[in-house]
Amino acid sequence: MTNPAPALPLAIEPSVKAALDAGQPVVALESTIITHGMPWPQNLEMARRVEQEIRDHGATPATIAIMEGRIRVGLTPARMEALARTPQDQVMKLSRADLPAALALGRTGATTVAATMICAELAGIRVFATGGIGGVHRGAETSFDISADLQELSRTPVTVIAAGAKAILDLPKTLEVLETLGVPVIAYGQDAFPAFWSRDSGLGAPLRMDDPALIARAALIRDTLGMKGGQLVANPIPPEAEIPRAEIMPAVEAALAEAAQQGIAAKDVTPFLLSRIFELTKGRSLAANIELVLNNARLGAAIATAFSAAFAADFDAGGANG
Questions:
Q1: 113-123 helix and 148-155 helix, angle to the nearest 10 degrees
Q2: Which of 82, 109, 241, 261 could form a disulfide with 92 if both were Cys (CB 3.0 to 4.6 A apart)?
Q3: Which of 13, 30, 51, 121 is catalytic?
Q4: Segment 203-207 long-range contacts (CB within 8 Å, at least 24 positions apart)
Q5: Where does Mn(2+) bind (predicted)?
Q6: DSSP states along 274-306
């Protein structure tokens, strides 16, 4: 006799549940950016600003984290502050591989892009705004260090808005892997693929769309065609906030060299690099990071609103024909 599966440990915050039940736009947000991406208290200030930006643009934010043995979809102000104050070494950085274990162990966990997509789908959220996705790391041909974010984009039907992939990565190989996996990579408002702090990576984006409604429609057509997976919307950082590639890359290369010298690997690489680049740019990288996340939140709200309008139109058409 097999043991029964445990109940789904999903706790949706009341305002998020109300919005979902009413068919209103909801935008998922990750929590790794809070626990591993920025120092206290900037992390809490940023998280609050991003949530407010989404509200100001007509959608409901849903920050996702693992707390008290539950998948928390939407955090109360108290939980948000508690997470932001928790020392980094006491928070698991969760992807697909370790999400179930964190829940079983009752650990506090921050969700990466991959884990956030999984949790968002469980809650019925189709749009997720983040900073930048993970991808193929430099030297992956020998280290095999490739982010699980790429596989997740190929299997989980969530539209992810990011300022491209993080500039610390091997961007050409990242785009190649996304193409192999069948993930649509859509640049918003330009032909170039952005590189996180910079608007132009020097690479062209496979697709371009300038209308949030078209982006939502493309995702819905994927559903109609029975195609698995989501889509990546590469939204360039605002011009006034960017650090041009020629300025940021020396800091990136210096940080990468230090990481190699110190033997830093796996999940520790990205937090180390972001911290070092912050120091090398005298804080400019953090300021740019905040602005690009806010920009992605605005576009996420617009795309989520377009999803809601499309669902409402389908419902009305069904009612009229029923």
A1: 30
A2: 109
A3: 30
A4: 203/171, 203/172, 203/175, 205/234, 206/175, 206/179
A5: 145
A6: HHHHHHHTTTHHHHHHHHHHHHHHHHHHHHHHH
The ranges assigned to domains in the chain are 10-315
Distance CA 76, CA 15 (A): 10
81 in catalytic set: no
Three-point CA angle 134, 36, 155, nearest 5°: 35
Range 10-315 has CATH code 3.40.1790.10: yes
Strand ranges (DSSP E) for the chain?
A: 10-12, 26-29, 60-67, 70-73, 92-94, 109-111, 127-129, 159-162, 185-188, 192-195, 198-204, 207-209, 231-234
Q: How far apart are the first and last CA of the chain?
A: 45
Give CA–CA dist 84/196, Å, rounded.
23
The Cβ-side half-sphere exposure at 214, using a 13 Å CA radius, reads 10
Residue 315 in this model has a pLDDT that exceeds 70: no
Cα separation, 308 vs 22, whole angstroms: 10
* Both structure tokens of 253: 């290369």
Cα–Cα distance measured from residue 243 to residue 17, given in angstroms and rounded to the nearest whole number: 38
Cα–Cα distance measured from residue 196 to residue 77, given in angstroms and rounded to the nearest whole number: 28
Q: Tell me the one-letter amino acid at 292.
A: L
Indicate which residue of 13, 17, 152, 166 is catalytic.
Answer: 166
Q: Can you tell me the distance from the alpha carbon of 255 to that of 107, in angstroms, rounded to the nearest whole number? A: 31
pLDDT tens per residue across span 55-98: 999 999 999 999 999 999 999 999 999 999 999 999 999 999 99
Q: Tell me whether residue 173 is one of the annotated catalytic residues.
A: no
How far is residue 180 from each of residues 103, 170, 173, 177, 223, measured CA to CA in Å? 32, 16, 10, 5, 19
Cis? peptide before 41, omega within 30° of 0: yes
Residue 113 in marked binding region: yes
Distance CA 257, CA 269 (A): 11
